[in-house]
Specification:
The chain is of the alpha/beta class and 363 residues long. 39% of the residues lie in helices and 17% in strands. The protein contains 13 helices and 14 strands. It has helices spanning 17-31, 69-84, 100-105, 126-142, 151-161, 183-189, 209-217, 237-248, 259-268, 283-290, 301-304, 319-331, 346-359, and strands spanning 2-6, 35-41, 51-52, 55-60, 88-92, 109-114, 145-148, 167-169, 196-200, 225-229, 252-255, 271-274, 295-298, 313-314. It has an 8-stranded mixed β-sheet. It has a 6-stranded parallel β-sheet with strand order 11-10-9-12-13-14, with helices on both faces. The longest helix has 17 residues, at 126-142. The chain is globular and about 60 Å long. The mean pLDDT is 94.
Length: 363
């Protein structure tokens, strides 16, 4: 079966939750015998790759403009998928899902993965939010199969669109942790093992990293530092302001990191913190849990679905409550935890997605 994937910026080593999801999932599906083609946005990749880990890669131009690039790229990707003779077009996220009816008109079967209600993100204006809501509607009403990454999203589409058939709850996954040391990198950053709190995500308003910086500044941190790992796709007033705020307050900024650098940061952090106001099912949180580190997260539904102990949550937007949690962590010895990660196994997830593809195989 030929599976063409669109809606992601690209793989490998492209920042974003959808991108990490696709990077983990589709090589596994290729190993299960599917002919997988991922269509990438040319402006995000400069590796010259035509294939990676068994996945074929096709690069298509798209305007690098926040409001238009996803929909323009998806339109071009759907036409390419038709030209390639796709048995199934697998679209990711509600923006690209706006064109599900177009793909169906061209005769393709469509699997749509709903990664979260992106119209709740602070970065979008009224027009963009309206189009994202329409994209969610088109995907949920017209896709042959809908995959949701959390029970919160499954309930949302049931309530809004009445869709209960051909809806599959398949969680995001997490790989086995690569516990490692990287002393040279730590010296470069000026941090010590167990002496830093880690925030790891994109620098966008709904992640509320400014709350994390504010909370950290309200406590006596001693030798413990705050490290923010990540960046933004589109530099804007928020990301510039966050970076300036961080530098003024002695926060360590790593930029976008992957591989050994990221693994070493996860291995040795005192705590991982995610204060966001909007998530689908955060892969970054699952990654931190896989390393057994203490986590402190906002009490939004997507984070609560992970099922952490009550003391690991704080009311979203409550900087004082977050500061209190961080202060407790700094005062206590470093502790590691054995979280149950069974349902976040990528091999099991790949089997579930493969089953959906096979059920839509042309006769």
């Amino acid at each position: 079966m030929k599976i063409v994937v669109a809606g992601t910026r690209g793989i490998p080593n492209v920042m974003g939750g959808v991108e990490t999801h696709c990077e983990e999932l589709f090589p596994r599906l290729a190993r299960r015998g599917f002919d997988v083609i991922v269509i990438r946005r040319k402006s995000y990749v400069c590796d010259g790759l035509k294939e990676w880990n068994g996945v074929k890669l096709v690069d298509i131009e798209s305007p690098k403009k926040k409001s238009f690039e996803a929909i323009v790229h998806t339109f071009r990707a759907i036409n390419e998928a038709k030209r390639l003779g796709a048995d199934i077009l697998h679209l990711h996220a509600i923006g690209p899902a706006l064109l599900v009816p177009y793909a169906k008109m061209l005769g393709m079967k469509v699997v749509f993965t709903h990664h979260g209600p992106d119209y709740d993100r602070d970065k979008w204006g009224f027009a963009a939010k309206t189009m994202l809501k329409l994209g969610e509607r088109m995907g949920c009403l017209f896709a042959n199969e809908v995959i949701v990454i959390s029970d919160v999203i499954r309930n949302l589409i049931k309530q809004k669109y009445g869709r209960t058939q051909h809806v599959h709850l398949i969680y995001n996954g997490v790989s086995q942790p690569d516990v490692c040391d990287f002393p040279e990198y730590f010296r470069e950053l000026g941090i010590e093992e167990g002496q830093y709190i880690l925030g790891m995500c994109r620098f966008v308003p709904e992640k509320n990293l400014h709350h994390l910086v504010e909370a950290f500044n309200r406590i006596r941190s001693g030798n413990v530092k705050l490290v923010l790992a990540g960046d933004t796709d589109f530099e804007d007033d928020y990301s510039r302001g966050l970076k300036d705020m961080a530098r003024r307050n002695g926060v360590v900024l790593t930029g976008f990191v992957k591989g050994r650098k990221l693994h070493s940061l996860l291995t040795h952090c005192r705590c991982y913190c995610l204060p966001s106001s909007h998530e689908g099912l955060p892969i970054a949180l699952l990654e931190a849990m896989s390393y057994g580190v203490k986590v402190i997260v906002s009490d939004i539904p997507a984070n609560k679905e992970v099922g952490l102990p009550p003391e690991d949550y704080f009311p979203v937007g409550d900087v004082d409550a977050l500061a209190g949690k961080l202060d407790e962590i700094i005062r206590r010895p470093v502790t590691h935890f054995d979280y149950d990660m069974t349902k976040y196994d990528w091999e099991q997830i790949a089997d579930q997605v493969a089953g959906i593809y096979k059920s839509n195989k042309k006769s």
